Amino acid sequence: MKKRALSLLLALVLCLGLAAPALAEEPEFDIQNGVLVAYNGPGGHVTIPSTVKEIGQNAFYATIYTGNTVTGVTIPNSVTTIRSGAFQSLPELTEITIPDSVTYLEYYAFASCSKLETVRLPRHLDYLGAFCFEDCTSLTNVTLPQSVKVMERNVFENTPWIRTQGEFPTLNGTLYAYNGNGGNVVVPNGVTKIACQFEEAFAKQSNITSITIPEGVTEICGSAFMSCVSLKSVTLPSTLEKLGESAFWGCTSLEKVVLPEGLTMLESDTFWGCTALKEVTIPASVTTVGYRVFVRDTIYDSDLKRSVGDPLTGITIHGAAGTAAERLAKGMGYTFAADQPGGSAAPQTGVAQANTQVFTVLYYYYDEEAGKNVCEEKKITFYCYSLYNGGVNYVKLRDVAQAIDGSVRKFNVGWDGATNSITLLDGEDYVPDGSELKQYFVGDQNYQVSTAQVKYYGLPVILDGLTLTAPNGGASNYYKLRDIARVIGFDVSWYPDKGIVIDTWNLYNDVN
What we know:
The protein has five helices and 40 strands. Helices cover 8% and strands 35% of the residues. The strands form ten sheets. Strands 29, 30, 31, 34, 37, 38, 39 and 40 form an eight-stranded mixed β-sheet that branches. A seven-stranded mixed β-sheet has the order 1-2-4-6-8-10-12, with no helix packed on it. Mean pLDDT is 88; it is low at 1-24. By secondary structure, the protein is mainly beta. The chain folds into two domains: 29-338, Ribonuclease Inhibitor (Leucine-rich repeat, LRR (right-handed beta-alpha superhelix), Alpha-Beta Horseshoe); 349-507, no CATH class. A hairpin with a 4-residue loop joins strand 32 (411-416) and strand 33 (421-426).
């Protein structure tokens, strides 16, 4: 009888030409092409449908504001991927069932779930993202499978569980925490990666006076030794290939560092606040140097109308002549000692191969009419160059600036021909000069290693670049897209269905 009455009411409304009341509510699970985009349900214990293959970024985030408290989640075995922040900051979440089908658990996935006590990670998990369980302050029981191939930094930062795992908690060669007493620390053999920082690792350990990293370690993630204020000396292995940004941030007693041959980049903020630092050896293999590497603090620049780096003084840089080390020393006004071998330095000239690439650029903005954030995709053609078939693409700064203009990562490019210098200013609208996204060179071209000085936040950055000279005498500088992304802050990824993707919302992530 109720159904018939409702049908008669709707028929009457339609016959009278009146607008029918909205009867359909927002679906509990917003699923698009197998991805759970958003959960809009009442909360409690949530069982995700078996049609879901991937739990999308911030899928449960809206429940923080709706008051629909989620206390438990059961994930079906159809799911293989859980994206960043999917269950972040669910204050009443106490139970989570993650099936063995999940192989990829992205950063911040369960961060700040303060009542979560027990987690059994999947048996076939390959990737465990940074900060995944950060600030899960009740987490005391974790089943960590041996299948994990990549474990990023700070996965269990500020959890009770991490403090019960011995002096050097290690999984498959990845040291992900330090629970020792300081002093002269010697990392044990067998470690291949140090993926920890902040209070979980060596960072903020004021009682560490020296540290020795063993041979075999290839990567040290960002901020690994941050604020180790008593650290005077560090021994780095010859096998080291990556030293993350802010590695020695605030190490105010550090006096001398020898960076090993094999590093290709000196990351941003590496020696921020190292006021006792006097000598740094930079090998010829380093071709890129990030911003604010040698600063004591930031100061306000009235001309640039922004904060810039206040440089450290009295530093001697040891390196090979003609390399990034010498260019950095010159740009910073430091003493340069050409006392290192330069045999592995990149060739100064050669032939660059022409390449046309269509990049996907993701723009994010808030749609006021729809009341939600929207991602717009644009396909943009870049005219690139590489040094060998299938090699890394070099692109023009102005092309990138034009491509992401209007996004939250927008930046402007300035040029001073008298000093052969380029200035990057982030957060400013790009001012084009007419050269953007055009093919000025046809076919392979001779190149020279770029010696143009690039300044960011008022201080030099050294980018691995190529200078191509046109027959009419004009020249253009090309740089690695990932190096530009590191400096400006946007993310670069590669997907089988989209190719190279420039993400103007998410911060740069080396994993991508």
